[in-house]
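To: structure subgroup
Subject: Chain for Friday's discussion

All,

I'm putting the inputs and outputs inline so they're searchable in the archive.
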Amino acid sequence: MNLIFSRRRVLGGMGVLGGSLMFPRWLLAADADDTRAITREAWIYAYPMLMHYQTLEKQLLNPAAPEYVGGFNRFRHYSELYTPKNREIVTPNNDTPYSWAWLDLRSEPQVLSVPAVDDDRYYVHQLVDQYTHNFAYVGVLSTGREAEDYLIAGPDWQGPTPAGIKAVLRSETEIVMVLGRTGLKNADDLPAVRALQQHYRLRALHEYTGSPAPTAAPAVAWPVWDSKTGLGPSFIAALNQILTLCPTHPSEDALRARFARIGIVPGQGFDVAALPVETRQALIAGIQDAQAQLQAAVSQVRTTLGLFGTREALQGNTLNRAVAAHVGIYGNSVEEAFYTGTRQDNQGQPLQGGRQYRLRFAPGQLPPVSEFWSLTLYDLPDRQLVANSIDRYCLSSRNQLQADADGGLTLVMQPSAPQAQSNWLPTPASGAFTLVLRLYGPGREVIEQVWRMPVVEVIAA
């Protein structure tokens, strides 16, 4: 999965309940039982938006953060291979180096320009709104391999489509994140990836058309984010600020009206300390209920089917959206990429360093993809790459793998080098680990759950 940012600090803060701003008492139109139930529902709804804001805060608002991208409407490209020394993100992959950008669409749209690419080059730009919906894609699977210009517009833009624009991509929210990924074939391919990234271009609409610049949008009163307290009762204050940039979707009118009963209103202040003791206790109980609900749902996740996509694809399932943010925020929609994996062997035991395992794809049962697949190993609980003697952290269909005599494919996972090393994925000498299988351009049999990842077999010593 595309697990960009660590949840350790965030989850550590889930039990720290506190925070204060200003709260209008007249909005408390719910009794204690209602407050608890509505809070549980609202916290699940808010969780992915808060995690998204945490990413925004690091990448946009904190120049001292290593994740800082340099401001709105510009790309920051990442084009170095990850190693076990890189620990700023969890479950990093070396399949697709990232290109990050955040767009402010309040005053005018932005134009995303992409170059033409060869038939063997994969790239994609995933467009994410503030709800964390993947509302649009630009890339080889969704829009093709030709050089094109795409207009990314906010919810209120009503202007004419300029000449030369291939398509208008409309966001529900005023702020949009663009997460680009460029397929990397091997270490020798890095210069070509870097050169391609430089051809991803963002321009304001007025620059694209050569017209005068519009009036600049006013500065945003960004909420202060504290990962230790932000998921406690003060989540309402942060959510209220975020919602000022998120017009209410018609499908959520009733939901937003219900949330207003506990003080969730765009732009409205919220002061936890001013609440009656009974109300504060109900809020805390509702948050604890929501946390338990989320953890229970996360424990059942085996694949990413149903977790990532457009608003229409998710069908209003706010719990699935929260689960997605927890297990791997910014995962691709299934039409673009599919993620699965395992922490257990065929005997139901945790995968452990020091043991020998194999993963065999029977003849005709390789991962069905239009692009490529990869299998990456991570330690637990940190979900980081594992140092090994040959600096190999994944196996991929882009490697020169040795097929079995019957046409199948067996991948070997163990700490010591086997005689034939082409299919060897080194494991740690000790400690638990997990495997993540990524499929880029998955076939219909994957989406329809006809094809499944084989079990990992333990090899007797």
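Points worth raising on Friday:
Residues 1-28 have pLDDT under 50 and may be disordered.
Residues 38 and 259 are 7 Å apart (CA to CA).

D.
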